[in-house]
Write a structure and sequence with these properties.
By secondary structure, the protein is of the alpha/beta class. It contains five helices and six strands, in the order E-E-E-E-H-H-E-H-H-E-H. Keywords: Cytoplasm, DNA damage, DNA repair, Methyltransferase, Transferase.
Length: 163
């Protein structure tokens, strides 16, 4: 797996890709980081990622257009796909995603899959909040979750946000 490091306002991001697409994006102190040793550093293979992350952090990009290749079971991949449909500047709850996938009884499984999302920021697990709108769990730390949500807030009112 090829990888590089991309500097960002939330610290250095390690990005890994296979021939199929982006397989991981982790913070420097990411809880659960890469599940394997990354050995083939290839800084030249990530210009698209650098460009899109730069546009995102500058407030000029609300959706990423990168090929994705996360590793996970079928349910986790369904959850990660659902995360990509949460609009920039909005939030959703674990229960909302569970209902969309077949039933509120899936809420805990959604939480587990969300926590195992290997492609932070691009697959926006930071947009998922607790049922009461509270910021809960984020492998990159709650300060980063708050930073990303604030970056995405469309206006001072926080339109589309649950909190």
């Amino acid at each position: 797996m090829r990888w590089t490091v991309v500097p960002s306002p939330v610290g250095d991001l390690t990005v890994a890709r296979t021939d199929a697409g982006i397989a991981g994006l982790w913070f420097a102190d990411h809880r659960g980081g890469p599940g394997e040793t990354l050995t083939d550093r290839d800084d030249a293979a990530f210009d698209d990622v650098r460009e899109q992350l730069g546009e995102y952090f500058a407030g000029r990009r609300t959706r990423f257009d990168l090929p994705l290749a996360p590793r996970g079971d079928a349910f986790a991949r369904r959850v990660w796909d659902a995360l990509t449909r949460i609009p920039c500047g909005a939030t959703s709850t674990y229960g909302d995603i569970a209902r969309a996938l077949g039933g509120v009884g899936y809420s805990q499984a959604v939480g587990v899959a969300n926590g195992r999302n290997p492609i932070s920021i691009v697959v926006p697990c930071h947009r998922v909040v607790g049922h009461d709108g509270a910021l809960v769990g984020y492998a990159g730390g709650l300060w980063r979750k708050r930073f990303l949500l604030d970056l995405e807030t469309p206006d001072a009112e926080g339109a589309g946000r649950l909190f």
